[in-house]
Amino acid sequence: MTRGFSSIGLVRPKDKANVGSVLRAAHCYGSSLVAIQGDRTNLSSITDTSKAARHMPVLRGDDLFAMCPHLAVPVAVDLVDGAIPLPDFTHPESAFYVFGPEDGTLGSAHLLKCKYRVMIPMNICMNLAATVNVVLYDRMAKQMAKNVRIAA
Predict the structure, then answer these.
(1) Is the dihedral of CA 128, 66, 75, 135 positive or negative?
(2) What is the pTM of this model?
């Protein structure tokens, strides 16, 4: 049995297909909610093929951190100086993963509120939905490996 939870925060996403794919990833990996600040898409037009919004809250607002779940540790996922490579990162028990827009990066206002900064080592930037999938898969894989070690 896994303790804690994951939740997703998106800052100013612009592509409705990416937002829909983030919702699907969050649903697939059992995230508790998706919070969206400054959404530049129309949520009614996103492609949410798994109907994730029926299974977890999707919040929209002007202050991302006001939507952060109680006791969740904010984790910035961005290609910034000092970020921990994802393979070396130990996920908090309860995390609020914060992702920037497809056409930019998280600014200092968001980075300063995050306890950790994580980056995915790669040759070029992935899109938003792919990045969310990789982070959530990494979290799940590390939790499963930890559970196997505990059971052994």
Answers:
(1) negative
(2) 0.92
